[in-house]
Amino acid sequence: MKSWTKNKQVIRDLFIVIGITDAPQPWFPPEVREIIKGGKVFSGGKRHHEIVAPLLPEGAEWIDITVPLEKVFEKFRSPLPNRGGALVIFASGDPLFFGLANTLRREFPEAEIQVFPTFNSLQMLAHKLVMPYHDMRIVSLTGRPWQEFDRALIERAPKIGVLTDKEHTPAAIAQRMLEYGYTDYTMHVGEHLGNPQEERITSLTLEEAAEKSFAMPNCLVLDGSSVERSRSFGIPESSFALLDGREKMITKMPIRLLTLQALELPKRHVFWDIGACTGSVSIEARLLFPHLHIEAFEIRPECEAIIKENARRFGAPEINVHIGDFCLTPDPSPVGEGRPDAVFIGGHGGKLKEIMAKVCEVLAPGGVIVMNSVVAPKVTTDSQKLWNEVCEELGLRQEPPMRILLDEHHPITILKCKK
User: Fold this and answer.
1) Domain 237-418 is of which CATH architecture?
2) Cα(87)–Cα(228) distance, rounded to whole angstroms?
3) Among 174, 134, 128, 168, which residue's Cα sits nearest to residue 153?
4) Are 122-223 and 237-418 the same fold in CATH?
5) What pLDDT shows up at residue 410?
6) Which residue from 83, 99, 158, 181 has the highest number of Cβ atoms inside 10 Å of its Cβ?
7) What is the pLDDT of residue 2?
């Protein structure tokens, strides 16, 4: 973009971002009307253009904001001959509330940005419901994954405001909540907020919402003021769906919790569970540390249904399950949200060296690997000795092992190393 002069000072770029609602005849304060009147180049979504077109000066140029945004930003940077002083952009609601102004700050760090906000859609919906919103947990699913929404559910947020899109619709949200057992919420949906002719507010159960379509744009509030907030610390192994009904195949709850402690999960971001079996470690990690991105690897195909059943049973969405031999995975690094910084090896099938070598290729600096070694009469391979050899070969720094004897079970040693 061209520089321009204001009070004899050179400004590299100036974006004026004006928030609007869905009102067909928007009201603007006098200052904003003067900005529009004197503007030459404007931008916004197609819906915004339809709303403000009667207010634009004759000969105004309009840049549609469409995806991919990179092409739009190229136009923003182009030295347009009639640009004059500033680029005036119309955006929905408050442009700093999951809005375009945040993106402009990132893409044009040297630019000057002025914002003239109006109420965002969730504020407008709360006003219509006469619902206090100072304690509302806000989640945007507009072009974003489920991660933060799932986290709000797991943490039992009593009031969740959700920005939707064409994929994350009220029906899709309700279906996800029902699938994972988060049923004690009422859904309030606002459609075309700010437009007197089309605005509609609907309050309904999740079962009703799951079968209903709503006009776009819309947003919603989930009211779970009666939701039970407590959650048990640790899940008994008898509560899980098991592989062939064998309770011995699952990591015992006390060992599971100590293993999660060794993984330092509160400060980790991407957790891999290799040899997940029933998914007990992944599920416990998801519920206790819902900020994590979790990838579960398991070689046995029959375990996929078991892991997913347990995830639904305990309300642990977004555990990504990968079935197959981990050692034969061409390149596991692109999985999920990037390089792991915490890895648990729950089973290795005699391929510990190959698994650890592959993990080390993608493990983030400072990442941790944990494995539990069982000392039992029928175990012919000394897994702790093999662990020690692998750590030395790969240059991994070991931490003191933790030996646990639980009831009548064989002793277990929790092994830990860092990159």
Assistant:
1) 3-Layer(aba) Sandwich (3.40)
2) 49
3) 174
4) no
5) 74
6) 99
7) 43
Residue 10 is predicted with a pLDDT of: 35
Once rounded to an integer, what is the mean pLDDT over residues 332-338? 69
Token representation of residue 302: 């029959």
Report in angstroms the alpha-carbon separations of 274 from 144, 184, 355, 370. 27, 34, 9, 10
Decide if domain 122-223 falls under CATH 3.30.300.130: no
123-141 tens-digit pLDDT: 999 999 999 999 999 999 9
The closest of 337, 348, 343, 347 to 361, measured between CA atoms, is 343
List beta partners, residue 88: 16, 42
Check residue 363 and report its DSSP letter. P
Q: What is the CATH number of domain 4-118?
A: 3.40.1010.10
Residue 247 confidence (pLDDT): 65
CB proximity list for 131: less than 8 A, separation 6 or greater: 159, 188, 221, 223
* Contact yes or no for 214/188 (Cβ under 8 A): no
pLDDT digits (tens, 9 = 90+) for 251-289: 889 999 999 999 999 999 999 999 999 999 999 999 999
Please report, for the chain, the start and end positions of each structural domain, with discontinuous segments joined by +: 4-118, 122-223, 237-418
- CA–CA separation, 191 vs 275, rounded Å? 46
Element (H, E) at 19: strand 14-20
What is residue 196's DSSP assignment?
A: T
**Identity of the amino acid at 13:** D
CA angle, residues 322, 324, 328, in degrees to nearest 5:
115
Cβ-Cβ contacts under 8 Å for 17 (sequence gap 6 or more): 89, 90, 91, 95, 99, 100, 101, 104, 113, 114, 115, 116
CA distance 227 to 159: 10
User: Token digits for 143?
Assistant: 């072009």
